[in-house]
Each structure stands twice: as C-alpha cells, then as structure tokens.
Design brief:
By secondary structure, this protein is α/β, with parallel strands linked by helices. It has helices spanning 36-46, 61-66, 71-79, 87-95, 109-115, 140-151, 212-219, 230-239, 259-272, 277-303; strands spanning 5-9, 30-31, 34-35, 51-56, 97-102, 125-128, 132-135, 154-160, 170-179, 182-190, 201-209, 244-248, 252-255. Strands 5-4-1-6-11-8-12-10-9 form a 9-stranded mixed sheet, with helices on both faces. The chain has a two-stranded antiparallel ribbon with strand order 2-3.
C-alpha cells in the first residue's frame, strides 16, 4: 500500500476569524513565520506524500498563488541576498504537485472529500484537516501510514478529551485495544452527548482511508449540523466489512480553528524558535509581572472601606 496523495479540505468560510477572513483564507493565517497550511504540506512531504488535492471555495484562489512561483519576488530577494526567506516554500513548489478542486457549496467535511473523488482513483488516500497542526519528529500522517501499511486497513488519528467535551468531536467506540495507543474501532458517532459517548477518544484531523470512502459518501444524507459528515461515512465503511483502526497520535497538537488556538500555537512555536524564544519569553515575563501588579491593586481597592455620599 503506497500513500502518495493527500486531500486538504480548504473550502470553509472561516467565520470564527471574521472580519480577518473576509478576503484572506483562514488556511493562510500566519503561525509564526508561515501560513498555517504550509505546515500541513511540510508534514505530508516528510511522510513521502508529493501530490496534494486542495478542495477550495470562493475567494480561495490566493492559496494557489501561495504554492506557486513568483519570479519578480524571487529575483528581488536574490539581488538582496535574502533567498533564504523563501527557501522552504520553493522546496515545496519544486518537489510537489497541487490539484485544486472547487467545492461549490459548503456542505461539510464529508462533502468536501467527496468533491475530490474524480482525481483520486482506486487508491488509499491521506486526509489532512488544516485546522489542526501536529508537530513530532515522526510526522503525524506518517504514523498513520505506517499502521495502515502494517495492518492493511483504514486508520484515523484520535486523542483523549474530557468526557464533557465529546459533543464537539467525532468519538470512537472500541472493539479491541491492540496496544496502549492503537485500537480497533467498533463504531464512530459524530458529536455525541457525554451520556451517549462510547469513549473519550476523539477523532482529530488526520486520516488514511480506502477509496471505498467515496462510495460511502455518495450514499450519505445530511447528518449532524446540516452537513455531510465524514465520520458517518467511516461508520459505513465499518458496516461494509472494512477494518478501521484508531491511533493515539504522538506529538504537540494545536487546534488553530479558533482565535485562542491560533494564538497558543503562535506563542508556543515562538518560545521554541531560536530566533524569537528569548525575546518572547522576556516579554511574557514582563506581562506576568504587570498582570500581578494590576491584580494586587485591584484586590487592595476591593478591600478598602467604601465611602458613603
């Protein structure tokens, strides 16, 4: 089983980041010094994936521009001896292939994946959700590829969440635990209440799926949230007799689908970056001292005797 093609669904409206995302795709919002989606592509490259199918929507053509050459800018940087500023991006452009597919209606993740069916064929496919960044020496999607090749099955990434948060995720039910981090899946339920959740293992944004997933998506109706759910299609794969495994993904994970999540990712990566770490750490320390002073003054005011007029 060779996995050399990935789907990146990038057709969402990005409403959580409005008005910033009115004209800038949320997938290109910066995480430190790179657009979020560039980290996704780099992860795929490290796992040996060279072909990326990007499902886009209205006002997303700038994604195509980012992963394309810009001779005027490149020549300018070369003249200033600053070629290194685009070195990583040019490596992507020169060693990968991009196919762009338009999602005509924002009908959910399952529909976005189904939209790409005509460019995939009869091969297993990797799927990245660009809202989730995962950093590990062994790339997250590479971890799943290894299991998919070993077990000859579908594999999804999971992580533990507090049981009260299950209604924000797709949740798996476990048929059998293979190892501390690997499970054979019995069922998948999209956004169950805590009382209905079969476990606290939530699906996160990495998948290796067989081409049968497109048949399952073709038969699906609108699900939870008024959208076509990928989780429901994977459940249909299970019912059709295909095996689905779940792996507790290893690495630092950031949900950058919210402003707070994006801020956390930026802060953490800045603190790990040799160029920025010292200055950012000093700044955060100064903020902490200032915050403590403000809190101290606030408490003093509250304890002061009130004045009656």
């Amino acid at each position: 089983m060779i996995i050399n093609k990935a789907i990146i669904p990038a057709g969402g409206l990005g409403t959580r980041f409005l008005p910033a995302t009115k004209t800038i795709p949320k997938e290109l919002l910066p995480v430190l010094d790179k657009p979020a989606m560039q980290y996704i592509v780099e992860e795929g490259m490290k796992a040996g994936i060279k072909n990326f199918v990007v499902v886009t929507g209205k006002n997303k053509s700038v994604i195509e521009d980012h992963f394309d050459t810009y001779p005027e800018l490149e020549n300018f940087l070369r003249s200033k001896k600053k070629e290194d500023l685009l070195e990583g991006l040019l490596k992507i452009i020169n060693s990968t292939n991009f196919i762009y597919v338009r999602q005509k209606e924002p009908l959910g993740l399952g529909h976005a994946i189904w939209t790409a069916k005509h460019v995939i064929g009869k091969e297993h496919i990797a799927i990245f959700l660009p809202d989730e960044l995962i950093f590990n020496p062994v790339p997250a999607i590479g971890q799943l590829i290894q299991i998919a090749q070993q077990e000859k099955c579908n594999v999804i990434a999971v992580r533990e969440v507090p049981i009260e948060h299950t209604q924000s995720y797709g949740i798996i039910g476990i048929r059998k635990q293979i190892s501390p981090n690997l499970f054979q899946v019995r069922e998948l339920i999209e956004k169950p209440s805590p009382a209905q959740a079969p476990s606290n293992l939530a699906i996160v944004g990495r998948y290796i799926l067989s081409p049968t997933i497109f048949e399952m998506l073709n038969e699906l109706k609108i699900g939870v949230g008024g959208e076509v759910q990928l989780t429901d299609a994977i459940q249909s794969l299970l019912l059709s007799g295909e095996k689905v495994f779940a792996y507790k993904i290893q690495g630092m994970r950031y949900d950058i689908g919210t402003p707070i999540g994006l801020l956390r990712a930026n802060l953490d990566l800045a603190l790990l970056h040799p160029k920025y770490a010292q200055e950012v750490a000093a700044y955060l320390e100064s903020l902490d001292k200032e915050y403590l002073m403000i809190q101290s003054k606030s408490q003093s005011i509250k304890k002061s005797p009130s004045i009656s007029l």
